[in-house]
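Appendix B, example 12.
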Amino acid sequence: MMRRNRLNQVLVAVILASTALFPQFAFAQDSSKTSADSKIRNIDGVAAVVNTGYVTRKEIDDRIAALQKQGGKLPDAATLRKTILERLIIEKIQLQNADQEGVLVSNKELDKIIADIAAKNKLTIAELKVKITATGTTYDRYRQLLKDDVIISRYREREVEGKIKISDAEIDNFITDRNREIAGGGKVARSTPAAKGELEEIDVAQIFIPADANAGAGAQAEVKKKAESLLREARGDVDFLQLGAMAAKENPKIKFQDLGYRTPDRLPQLFYEAVRNTGSNQVANTVVKSPAGYHILKVLDRRALVAGASEAQQAAPQESASSVPQNIMVTQTLSRHILLRSREGLTDQDAERRLAGYRDQVRAKTADFGELAKKYSEDGSAANGGNLGWMGPGDLVPEFDQAMNRLQIGDVSNPVKTEFGWHLIQVLERRDAQLTVEKQRQFARAAIRERKFEQAYQDWLRELRDTATVKIINADDPAASPR
């Protein structure tokens, strides 16, 4: 349930979140459809024309209403409408392209998916229909929404996965780095630094938050505040690129990337000035402001550059080391959790409050974690006291994984939110396990693919948006407001 199956995550999320319909309208230039276009404009109000379809103001209103029902802090009304419109435009483009590419979901497939969702939530189809109706939507609208989500997910997986290329050299280098880390007692072995006067290469990673130069002072301040918040998080014990991936998931406009080894002259001057005196595995002291936005920078490594050496020669010692058969050691964690799913009628505040109550009972030794999980957890592991079994790096979603890794054996976490809902986590035991030479290549490939997927996905979304024909008409007013 907690493993990273993106399609399953989408399907589970659909039943948990408030729903909204994404109606599709045909857009034509001929006069015979002028009347139909006018009706659409008068009823819902067109917010944007997207290729051959529409995004309506009512769609924006519905999505905002769904977010408001879920509770939680939302940005100001103008920023929220702009963000929601952009999401709907991206969704519309994906659905249109998927249709052109023949990505379909049959009614039989849809029935099977809905039956699986009902079974996972321990409901009959009739009970599921009642719950859907209680959210304020109809079952037919729910089916259409679910169908759209599945189509988008399948199209995204097909298109993005096809863009990810992983070479044997990348796998070898990944294994080498892990072996060097083991040899260094768990710390990443850094390259030989350049001596005074020697040329050097710097491996810099960045998290980039774009800022519209024409935006008002308030919007600019919000972007800067977000950048400074990410900078504070980056200084902690977190994986920098994973932090970027999480930020990009919340806001698709955020970009993160490893720039790779570059000599100072091949780095943007702003970047080099910011990291000139920053050591390996250190984050730059301040956020860097460029005309495009804000950059959080981290120096992953610095190494001496051998004059006249080729890139292949520079990598030769690593490739040699990786050829020695070794078993990668990974730390596995045995944990259990209590899950409260996000759903209509349960706000984030309520879920957090309930889990905090369970936490306090366990810490005070007035209740047993396993018994609470059996009674209250809304996950398939409940019958087993919430036990998730032995999990290694990358087996769990990032938010859960990071919270679990911060716990000592026996500790109970504060409430943790993921796309599945809210969790209370307890670590039972840890152990070191070996991956054989055969298994470690599979592990390396999966880890590299996971790292590359988020970046490839964000690049793909930007490409879709840039190549689409989009005309914003009126997104500022609610559907009920006159144009």
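The chain has a mean pLDDT of 77. The CA atoms of residues 361 and 367 lie 5 Å apart.
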